[in-house]
Amino acid sequence: MLAIRCKEYGPPSSLVLEEVESPTPGSKEVVVSVKACGINFPDTLIIQGLYQIKPDLPFTPGSDLAGIIKKVGEDVKHLSVGDEVFGFVAFGALAEEVVVSANSCFPKPKSMDFPVAASFMMAYGTSFYALKDRGQLKEGETLLVLGASGGVGLAAVELGKLMGATVIAAASTDEKLALCKEYGADKTINYKKEDLKSKIKELTKNRGADVIYDPVGGNYSEAAFRGIAWKGRYLVIGFAAGVIPKIPLNLPLLKGASVVGVFWGGFAMKNPKENMKNTQTLMQWYHEGKLKPHIHRIYELKEASKALEEMLARKVKGKLIVEVN
Length: 325
What we know:
6-stranded parallel sheet, single chain, about 325 residues, 7-stranded mixed sheet, alpha/beta
């Protein structure tokens, strides 16, 4: 089978497309013939050796996937050869075939095409777990989303509005913020033009945001935290800015606030039943037309490096997809 391979840590241009052995599933795994793979910011980090997971070289990147089951492990009862599915892996999905844990693989609705299915799990799974389980977002509260036009950010905007929050979207361009408004943002902040802390205070009438969703990090994190409400929850999603911020610990003390880590992949692996419940809720909302992933662009497998370069350049609104088979 063909696969994108990372043979040494480096930029997307160092990746190669080559033939490798087709995989065999373990007893609780399936092999999926990949139809589409969603590109996420951690994919750009893992190939540079900058992610918390460091696979042995060489390896295949890619985590979000959708496809058709080709082989089934002997202990897997709820999935069969030929089933159309979507799911996630830590790495390995930018290939024609990939081994997936049966607990991380879900039947794909007939109404959902493969590119949409491949754009679903990481973005909506992360954001729903963050807002519901870690942030305990309540109806009527104010949610601030940094990096709001990206894959997880836009999902957080959409879900926050659906969960009854007043949503403030923060992003770097007016064009990106226009998309956020389409996905339910009530108010917006262009943090390239406006002072983030001051604008949060202004938009919340000096009260602050109850929940802050931060997949960006860098210089924006402390400014955002200074705009948090009393007993607010600051959700640490990731560091797309490339810099892990150092927040003074007197800030959570003075605000009575919590800094809450969000590692959805770890949660999904350690708590598959709870993750399944969350996924079922998300799929129900999709069926009801309440969730609609925004696909920025679709690439071919041989163009995977270009997709990752576009992600690194922060030009993406919503999700990038690589079609495989």
